[in-house]
Structures are given as structure tokens and as C-alpha cells.
Specification:
Length: about 270
């Protein structure tokens, strides 16, 4: 497998999805999360390409992907499925490992649960967490709405770039509410996955401040992982002292954990 990075597009459901592929070794598909792009994952992808055939892509409305008429969990899951179908058509040497960040982790679990044998394993980075309580309650809505409106305003400076997000604040809010609902039933999805699963989770997903909502959110996040591992003790879990942006701030550590998880006999990477 050549180390040169190639770029191509997948056309699906009225959207154009940009895909990048490079590296050599075991095939690995890196799925971004809500409000993140393959450009945001550039450092992690580059590290993994040293010994993996790494595929990255943008979800609809993110990065260099086109906008869409609808944004929903199922629509994003369709984007991942379309990329994987194209990779299968191109003839990868073997089933890929899916590495999903945040929403991307949920997409990976759902895909694997419905396509047994189509993936070699899952690495889930701070997502797909069966939290016992929803993150966004009615009381939290005004604060979250204001936060995402501020984020949407800052996005104006990124228009036309590989890091742009075209979704409105309201669309992001609605998606987060939907993801809360989906995670309430994700344990059933895990029960259908018969491939190795590794999780890389943040200890302080909402930040390490002791005030406001952060302590409640962090406790809920940890409780969800504990709940999952109690039921699925075969799942390997690593914790990083970080917040939800760990994939951007701790890329070298995440790459080392992924290498160790996929090839335990090799030991920790240097």
C-alpha cells in the first residue's frame, strides 16, 4: 500500500462526501463527530498513517462536504455507510477497523451492529456512551442554545475552509437531543457487535471546573462507561486526563493507545 494520500469523493443521498486515504498496513476508517471535520483530525490521522491504511472523510455539512436538506443521526449514518460501501467496491485488503470520535463512535457502533463481519473492530473515542441520564434537559436548553449560537457565529470566519460547519445552532441543538435519545438504547446495539471494542474516554468531558454543569456532566459520563463495562466486560477502556476535545489535544497518546489495542503483541508505540 502506497503512503501517498489520495483524495476522491462519494456521492450519496444528494450530498458529496470528500474522502482521503493514505498510509500502509491494516485498513482503518476514522469517522469524525458532530461539528468536527477530517481536517480537525489531521494530526491523529497522520500519526496513524505510519502503520495503517487510514481513510478519513467529512460528514454532510462539515468541512468540504456539501450541505444537505436534512441533518439527522440516520443521515449521518448513511454517510458512513456510503464511504464504507465505496471502500468495499475499491477492494480493501481486509475489513477495516472503525475509529469513531464523539458522534462518530455512535455511528460506528450502529453500523457494526447491523453489518456483522463487515468491520474488524471498533475504537470509540469519547462517544457511544450509554449514559444513565440525558445530557440536555429542558432546564439546560437555553444555555446550550446560547452556546451553539455563539459557536455558529464564530464559524463565519471558517466559511469555505476545510474546517467549516454549515449546520445552524438550532440544527446542532436538535441533533444533540436526538443523540441523547439514541444513547438511551445503545446497550442493545453493543449486544449485537461481535468484534473487539476499545474505548478511549475523557475523565472530564465537560471540563475540569467545579462549578456549573460540568461536575454533573462528568459524573454522568463516567457512570455511562461503568454501566457499559459491567455488562460488556470484554470491552477495553482507557481514560485520558482531558476534556471532550481530547482527539485534538492528545492525538499522540490516542494514536499509541490505538496501536496497542489493535496489536497488543507489539507493545506500546514509541
Amino acid at each position: 500500500m502506497t503512503t501517498e494520500t489520495r483524495h476522491f469523493t462519494v456521492h450519496h443521498d444528494g450530498v458529496t462526501i470528500p474522502v482521503s486515504r493514505g498510509g500502509r498496513g491494516r485498513p482503518l476508517v476514522l469517522c469524525p463527530g458532530l461539528s468536527s471535520t477530517q481536517a480537525d483530525l489531521h494530526e491523529l490521522a497522520g500519526l496513524l498513517r505510519r502503520d495503517h491504511d487510514v481513510v478519513t472523510f467529512d460528514l454532510r455539512g462539515h468541512g468540504l462536504a456539501s450541505a444537505a436538506d436534512r441533518y439527522s443521526f440516520e443521515a449521518f449514518r448513511g454517510d458512513l455507510g456510503a464511504v464504507l460501501a465505496e471502500l468495499e467496491r475499491l477492494g480493501p485488503p481486509s475489513a477495516p477497523v472503525l475509529v469513531g470520535y464523539s458522534l462518530g463512535a455512535d455511528l460506528a457502533v450502529h453500523h457494526a451492529s447491523e453489518h456483522p463481519g463487515a468491520v474488524a473492530g471498533l475504537v470509540l473515542i469519547d462517544g457511544a456512551n450509554p449514559v444513565p441520564e440525558p445530557f440536555i434537559t429542558e432546564a439546560d436548553l437555553p444555555e446550550f442554545r446560547a452556546m451553539w449560537q455563539d459557536m455558529a457565529a464564530r464559524q463565519e470566519a471558517l466559511r469555505g475552509s476545510a474546517r467549516q460547519v454549515l449546520l445552524t445552532a438550532q440544527e446542532i441543538l436538535e441533533l444533540n437531543v436526538e443523540i441523547d435519545l439514541i444513547r438511551s438504547g445503545i446497550l442493545d446495539r453493543y449486544r449485537k457487535v461481535d468484534r473487539p471494542i476499545s474505548m478511549i474516554m475523557s475523565t472530564s468531558m465537560a471540563g475540569d471546573g467545579g462549578e456549573g454543569h460540568a461536575p454533573r456532566f462528568n459524573q454522568n459520563w463516567c457512570a455511562g462507561v461503568e454501566r457499559l463495562v459491567r455488562e460488556q466486560p470484554h470491552i477495553s477502556t482507557s481514560w485520558l486526563d482531558a476534556d471532550h476535545r481530547l482527539v485534538f489535544t492528545h492525538a499522540p497518546e490516542i494514536a499509541r493507545i490505538i496501536r496497542s489495542a489493535l496489536d497488543p503483541a507489539a507493545g506500546p508505540a514509541s
